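In response to reviewer comment 3 from the previous cycle, which asked for concrete evidence that the modeling workflow produces usable outputs, we include below a single protein chain processed end to end. The sequence was submitted unchanged, and the resulting structure tokens are shown without manual editing.
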Amino acid sequence: MDFSDSFSESPSESRSAPPPSAESSAAQEGDPARSRGGALRRRTLPEPPEPSHETPLQRWRRKIRRKTLRLVDWIINRLYRLISRIEKASPPEKRYFRVAIFGSSRIERDDETYRRVQDLAHRLSRIGCDIVTGGGPGLMTAANEGAREGAYRWGTRSFGLTILLPIEEQPNPFLDEVAEHKTFFSRLHQFIRLSHAYIVVDGGIGTTLEALMVWQLIQVRLLDTRPLIFVGPMWRGLRDWVERDIIASGLASRGDLSLPTWVDSMDEAVALVEQARDRFLARNEVLLPPPVDRSQGREEETHETAEAASG
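The workflow returned the following structure tokens.
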């Protein structure tokens, strides 16, 4: 089976351009990448020379291997297109406002940053936000733990998008829903699909990757209404580098630097998320249910237990 059609020109690319002028015809006369009508066409590279002393069986295996690899590439490309079409056809989430928290997996429980992220997730959960993390240790555990503590008010949920790595442990015990991924690509894709706001706390290479991916999608206007919030002084260095080496060199626009929001405190991050949540609820005409009052049930249970003990 020949899969050369999948790498050939599309019908729109093969249309002939208007007749070239005399000057352009002279310039294009010796250009093998142009057809007689002047339209650009794909340049065909010559086949690599066959290895010397290659037996017919070895030549057959080499060609089969090459065609198999082209088939795999073709299938993967079509699957990506199918995923994109399914995503566009699916209805958007209009009821639950979810916040993704990106952070390091190496920060321990006794660190001050751990307690601050735990409190951040607790406060976000109390104002009706679901929390989405990578489901692992470190600041991901802090966020999921804080979300669990604040969930009693609105019945919010805590999501973990895990990936099996030899350097990380199993999912943390504070998750309500777990989605296990085999690749970083699918995991990051679900992060973006599932969340309506993104908070970046202290982290390393993985946290930076996640934040920059969201930043780029905002830059190309695929995430227009979703805030990206960098929290803490460590991200000021990233901002300075982008401004000094990228924007100053003309590799990005000046306005791209203001697409994320850079804050120094968790209070500022909570205020920004609350504003985004209010816009989300107003845009989708969603009314939050009344808060779940579980304190009364706990008081009644304590009273019944005391009576049983006294009896």
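The two ends are 84 Å apart (CA to CA). We consider this sufficient to address the reviewer's concern, and the full set will be provided in the supplementary archive.
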